[in-house]
Amino acid sequence: MRIGLLTEGGYPYVSGDARLWCDRLVRGLGQHEFDIYALSRSERQEDEGWIQLPPQVSRVRTAPLWTAEDDGVVYGRRARRRFADAYGELAAAICEGPGTPDADVRAPGGPGVSGRAGAPGGSAASGGVEADRFGSALYGLAELARDEGGLVGALRSEGAVRALERACRAPGALRAARTARVPDLLAVAAHVERALRPLSLDWYEDDGLDSVDLCHAAAGGAAALPGLLARHFSGVPLLVTEYGVQLRAHYLAAATVGEVPAVRALLAAFHGRLAAEVYRAAALITPGNTHARRWQERCGADRAKLRTVYPGMEASRFAEVGESAEGSRCADPDTLVWVGRIEPAKDLISLLHSFAEIRKEEPKTRLRIVGAPAEGPEGATYLAHCKALAAQLFPDEAEGVHAVGDNPVSFEEIGGPEVPSLAEAYASGVVIVLSSVVEGFPISLVEAMFCGRATVSTDVGAVVEVIGGTGLVVPPRNPRALAEACVALLRDSERRERLGAAARARALELFTVEQNIAAFHGIYLEIVSHSPVRRVVVDDGGEPLPFGVPAEAHVPGRWTETRLMAAGRPRWAAGTPVRATVPLVAGEGA
């Protein structure tokens, strides 16, 4: 079959989100044909280029989300009226509260999220009217863009800002939205324009997304928008995969940016409505873990549509360490290892304080922190703060009066002389520690499990689900509990061995690339088998073919050719028949 893979800020670019997962999926499903529709996040990402694509990728179409030139489209009176009606409905759906005029904008654990449908804590029933209004307005804007040629200018216009202002001042609007000033409205309008840029693309006709058998969005939000329009215009079924829930990521980002309450409330409402529409329209939704699944359910996703599919990881990279006959016994018995990206969410400050408690019980213990700082000045600043704290807590030590002292805490990066590879980082210690306060799917934890190492982790995100009883889990931001768990494992080598062996067995069963590919292969077939026939494609004998790219098309020969069906076609063939996709010659493609 022919799959339209929809990405945002990732595949096929060299850097970005979900790049490795998408590449492994495409390469693992060589029996299908893939069209890539990618939205880029920055000029730098585009300049870095693409990874080498496999032959089953027949085309790649890209568009930037980080910039958009004025398309020069000038609407006539009727088009301006259509835009005003659709955008006004969209603004009204965003600004309306969950049913009471004084509804607060709050999320579990803090401000910034409303309790309406489409946001955690809300119910689908309470926001049904607003959800319908949002979806109708969204598709009305998409139809206008298709008919008139684009929305960039209109979404940036004064009329769009005025529509937002009217919606904020209307009875029943969110209380925080009523306080919005002109700069706030301009900020919201600019954000909505960026988010809705996919509506102006020419991807939906003329052998674009209308010709694929299935759209697979590698994330929610902007990545899924082209899939929504392909479903709306052409009836193409949509599959949405979220290994990190986009709505949750938006809430976390908004909390750190420090936006004013009115902007935060309106953007939270917009992204909540968009997420609810994506979940409503999707044929199936595949969260990467139960933590993500709970978020999706609370955002309006139908439980019957949810299928948990764990991310697939390359187990062979860690096979030598994990299958070693000595197991963790070959590692330094007094070494703890932390691996990851150095940023505040990883809470290395608590880890260092915990290590101070560990050293009181086990003075010979050493801590190796392996990883690079997150991009931007925040990551470098946090790394410098952690190094300063380590120097303060742990004075340099020397074995003798004539030796040079060193610190029991080391900061290293993969590729250095001490840690040439990721597998060797995990192999260097007997216990792997994770100290995060925020975590989605803990990749470093799975890698440690592949290596057969015992782990001590904080109870955040999907950690408990991943560990499944093969490691110790403690509350976050609790250095004493973290220290006690580490000391317990440092003192009990047999327990470490048992936990490490159980962890490796669990990882090989649930988190390999092979299980991930097999799951999506079955899901693709299930969705297409339940989708109505949109086009009639027939073979040389006049028999209908189920897919736009039939299996026969991959075998050379005259008998693979197709022809249009003549008069006397079956009654169920209501539309005009089309030709099957021409088989792709090896080496051709994007």
Question: What does it look like?
Answer:
There is one protein chain. With 590 residues, this protein is of the alpha/beta class. 41% of the residues lie in helices and 13% in strands. The chain is built from 20 helices and 16 strands. The chain has helices at residues 19-28, 43-48, 77-95, 128-148, 152-155, 158-169, 182-195, 225-234, 246-257, 261-281, 290-298, 319-322, 348-361, 377-393, 422-427, 443-450, 463-467, 479-490, 493-510, 513-529, and strands at 2-8, 33-40, 57-64, 106-107, 110-111, 214-217, 238-242, 284-287, 332-339, 366-370, 409-412, 429-434, 454-458, 472-474, 537-538, 544-545. Strands 3-2-1-6-7-8 form a six-stranded parallel sheet. Strands 11-10-9-12-13-14 form a six-stranded parallel sheet, sandwiched between helices. Helix 6 (158-169) crosses helix 7 (182-195) and helix 13 runs parallel beside helix 14 (377-393). The radius of gyration is 27 Å and the shape is globular. Mean pLDDT is 84; it is low at 99-126 and 557-590.
**Number of helical elements:** 20
Percent of residues in helices comes to 40-55%
Distance between the ends: 18 Å
| Major sheet attributes | 6 strands, parallel
- Arithmetic mean of pLDDT: 84
What is the assembly state of the chains in this entry? single chain
* Rg from Cα: 27 Å
Which structural class is indicated by helix and strand composition? alpha/beta
Residues in β-strands, percent: 5-15%
Which runs of at least 5 residues are low in confidence (pLDDT < 50)? Answer: 99-126, 557-590
Number of strands: 16
The strand line-up of the biggest sheet is 3-2-1-6-7-8
Overall body shape: globular
